[in-house]
Amino acid sequence: MKADVLVVGASPAGIMAATHAALAGARVILADGDLDGEHPANTLFEGMARRVGMTVDRSLVRHSLKGMRIISPAGHAVEIPAPGYFLDRRRMDQSLLRGAEKQGVELLEARVQDLAWSGESRLARADGDEIEARVVLDAAGVDSCLARSQGLIPMRHPEDVAWALEAEVEHPGLGEEPFFEYWIGSLAPGWKATFSPGGGDLATLGVFVRRQGRAVRPFFDRFRRRFQEHKSSAYPDIRGLKILRVRTGGDPIATVPGELAARGLMVTGGAAGQSGLAYGMRAGQICGEVAGQAARDGDVSQQALSRYQKLWSKELGQEYRLARASMNTLLEMDDRDIDALVEALRDKDLIAPGSLARKALKASLTVAGARPGVIPALIGNLLRG
After folding, report:
1. Which of 125, 152, 305, 333 is 20 to 30 A from 227, alpha carbon to alpha carbon?
2. Residue 356, pLDDT above cutoff 50
3. 48 C-beta neighbours (distance < 10 Å), count
4. Local confidence band at 350 (pLDDT 50, 70, 90 cut-offs)
5. With a threshold of 0.85, does the pTM exceed it?
6. Which domains are present in the chain?
């Protein structure tokens, strides 16, 4: 089999990369071992979608959200108005795949095991088949070894993947709550525990934990008990909460994307540390556009493909550096400090319109007014990258 561009992994980033490579005029194959697989990220906020030019298809929305609550270990909460959506991810992914096919992308249900060179092309082996492509895009998720096996280091801090366990749960009326919840502190060291209402009786509970290894079930069980206690006044029988199914994975939000392109090879989405549903899709779009144009022009050198890294860094790179600095600052705080910070921020306006710089300045000034000692640590972590 031959293609201009081979995309490995039908993640949202991978599907967008394949679609936009085809739109650029390339012959594209999208390969995945399970094209009907389901990806766990299901909550999207309007501000993030707008930031990357994404329009939310309302037919895919299972539940609308008014905003988010950030909850400290002691239960103090900051409420942030930020409209969002709980999405039907299976239908969304299938819709994206159909859109890719309409643009001429060939779908191949096969797992790509390794890469080699064949003249000026990459040769991929996929469940017994061989695929020759001018450019290969690794979009196979946070655990992908494909790009790393070719010498790329796509994450600057791979040790800081937040390993996750997320459960779909059921309880009468629980899914009708209007706010997504972030729980921070020692319940989920280094990142977060989450509650995402999905409409009706359905919701998800999850933990995303850094620097504690992959076995995060004990953190999930502790969070579930704390969540049930917290909700017991609203749901007297919350102890009967049913766990329908459990997924595991990783969130690379604190890893910071590193090397994203080499000769004939690019990386996008979770495999590149580009965390977040909307942001990952935007990264895939940029990656696919550059790959498709390079293949069409006959120049798949590292210099040509590195245009992707430059475009992505200019548009979104600073947000990931800020995210890592903020999360490392949070990791250095104990539960008492986090309780004090969240309590001090109650009733404060944390939202600012405009650019990322303006938003960051607004948030920093608010935090500085509430807890001045946090700012030097944040600046230090930002400088350390």
Report:
1. 333
2. no
3. 18
4. low
5. yes
6. 2-39+90-158+255-305 (3.50.50.60), 69-87+162-251 (3.30.9), 320-384 (no CATH)
